What does this fold into?
Amino acid sequence: MQHRTVQDLMTQQVVTVRREAPFKRVAELLAGHDVTAVPVVDGGFRPIGIVSESDLLRKEVVRPEPDGRSPIPWLHPRDRDRAEAETAAGLMTTLLVTARPDWSVVEAARTMERHHVKRLPVVDDTGVLVGVVSRGDLLRVFLRHDTAVREEIVHDVLRLALFIAPGAVQVHVLDGVVTLTGQLERRSLLPVALRLCRTVDGVVAVHDQLTYAFDDRRDEDRSRPSAEGPVASRAE
It folds into this structure.
């Protein structure tokens, strides 16, 4: 199974600024390149911070209304200093969360969720910036065609990983939702098959309609052809 990594999805041509970049230059870069944030890098192209649209908009927050009716909102002293900043050094967020190129999509998504950020600068082993990955980049795995998802499940999961005979399990994929029907040889294969299918890039959900021929959890054969009864199913 070939899982997409951050390196596969990240933007490699990254727009960056230096510490001394003036406020207006940062605003021009955001607008001109249609991005919502730019990393701030040092002389070795290592990220030291990031400036986003919200950092720039803070300056509007502290501006007084022309008629003076709306009082200027209270801000933490650090945020007020950033609102008054004139260069990237003063505007940027310095608590930087980064990713590595070999991270999985899952690891990157969990990091974004944990730190409540929308993007991650990607750095190599030496800390040099090599890309940026955003929430939108990670969502591209769900653009995979249903046919590609099905082929990966049939070939990589069922045949190569689980050694399930062709035709024993049918795989239907519609809008990323996988439905598995058919019969597995052993009951213990059920959770494994479902877990592996869920790890395939582009899978939205997995619906399980599988039965099993042998309940190896109880170490007894409940379904092999005999005069004692029909094939056991999970409804028992």
Remarks:
- The beta strands are 37-41, 47-52, 119-123, 129-134, 169-174, 177-186, 205-214.
